[in-house]
């Protein structure tokens, strides 16, 4: 497995992890201590705030799972990939694309984009 693929899979694993202690372990292993995350709906930094954001998304969308869409792409300290969020067995109602900046092989910054949202 390539480093780009592993980083993307670890990222998705974080978003699917429902246990706060397990999320903290993923953050410690795969993210820098000063990591930041920004998308159109959130702006947070640090492990605790990122974990709280993930927990909030899980509460808002119970039973939904994140999945990688396509193959992650990267060069140098940058990578990008697309993902979907939805329940198993149906077309995901939410999709996005993220750009990550890494430092020493760990996620330092995430810039997220929402590509598809449910109709209100």
Features:
globular, about 30% helix, alpha+beta, 6-stranded mixed beta sheet, about 120 residues, Nuclear Transport Factor 2, Chain: A, 6 strands
Provide a compact summary of the structure.
Helices cover 32% and strands 45% of the residues. With 120 residues, it is an alpha+beta fold.
Describe this structure in words.
By secondary structure, the chain is of the alpha+beta class. It has one domain (3-116): Roll (Nuclear Transport Factor 2, Chain: A), CATH 3.10.450. The protein has three helices and six strands, in the order H-H-E-E-H-E-E-E-E. It has helices spanning 3-16, 20-30, 47-60, and strands at residues 31-39, 42-45, 65-75, 78-86, 94-103, 106-116. Strand 5 (94-103) and strand 6 (106-116) form a beta hairpin. The longest helix is centred in the first third of the chain and has 14 residues, at 3-16.
């Amino acid at each position: 497995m390539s480093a780009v693929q592993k980083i993307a899979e670890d990222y998705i694993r974080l978003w699917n992890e429902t246990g706060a202690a397990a999320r903290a372990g993923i953050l410690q292993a795969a993210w820098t201590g000063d990591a930041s995350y920004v998308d159109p709906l959130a702006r947070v930094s640090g492990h605790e705030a990122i974990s709280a954001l993930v927990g909030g998304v899980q509460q808002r969308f119970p039973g939904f799972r994140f999945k990688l869409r396509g193959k992650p792409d990267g060069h140098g300290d940058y990578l990008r990939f697309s993902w979907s969020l939805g329940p198993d067995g149906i077309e995901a109602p939410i999709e996005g694309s993220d750009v990550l900046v890494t430092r020493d092989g760990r996620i330092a910054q995430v810039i997220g984009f929402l590509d598809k949202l449910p109709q209100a």
